Amino acid sequence: VQVKIPFGNKYLDAIFSVPETKPTYGVIVTHGAGGDMNFPHLVSLAACLASHGVLCLRFTCKGLNVAYRTKAFKTVVEYLKLSDDYKLSGVFLAGRSMGSRAAASVIRQLSQDDDDDDGFIQGLVCLSYPLHRPKLQSKLRDEDLLLIRCPVLFVSGSADEMCDKKLLEDVVSKIKAPKKIHWIDKANHGMAVKGRTMDDVMEEINAQVFSWLRENVELEHK
C-alpha cells in the first residue's frame, strides 16, 4: 500500500507491506545515504516480515544530513502511531547504514522526552551501522547508541570498511540495554560477500532480524 506522509511542506513517499493476518507489531525501516525505500535489501526484509505477520513500513527520505533524516523518521513514527488503519501494540525502528543512525537518534530523542516513553518503540535494528568513516576510526558515531534503553540488534559485515569489528564490539559492550550483534562473515558495508549471492546473504539477514524481533516481542508479553 503506497502512502504519502506529510512532512513539513512536503511529503515522504512510503510503502506498507501488510501481512494477511492482523498485525500486532510493525517495523519502520529506511535506507542509507544513497538509494531509497526500493533498495533491494529493504524490499526483501519487508516481504519477509509481512509473510511472518509483521507490518513493515518503509520510507524514502533523501538528504545527507542526519538531523534532517532523524526529523523525517520521527514524523513517520508519529504517523504510524496515530494511524487508524493499523492499531499496533508497538514498533521496531530499523535502518540501513545512515538510516540506522537516524533510527538510533530518534530512539534516543524520544526516550529523553519522558512524555513519549510509552513503550510504543520496542527496539532498534541497525543494518550495516556506519560506526566511522572509512579509514577514520578515531571518530566514532556512538553517542546515540550509548544512550539507548531498548533492545538493539546489529547486523554487520565482518569486513565492513565503515564498522570495524572490534570497535563495534567495544561500543556494544557499553550499551546498557539488551543487545546482540550478528556478523555476516566476510561481508562489506554493502553486505556483498565473495562467493555468495545477494539473495543468500539477505536470507541470512532477514532470518536473524525476524527471530530477534520474535524473541523480543515474546519477552514483552511474559
From TrEMBL:
Record Pfam families: Abhydrolase_11
Descriptive protein name: TEX30 protein
Record-linked InterPro entries: AB_hydrolase_fold, KANL3/Tex30_Abhydrolase, NSL3/Tex30
Protein's organism: Climacteris rufus
Residue ranges occupied by any KANL3/Tex30 alpha/beta hydrolase-like domain in the UniProt entry: 27-211
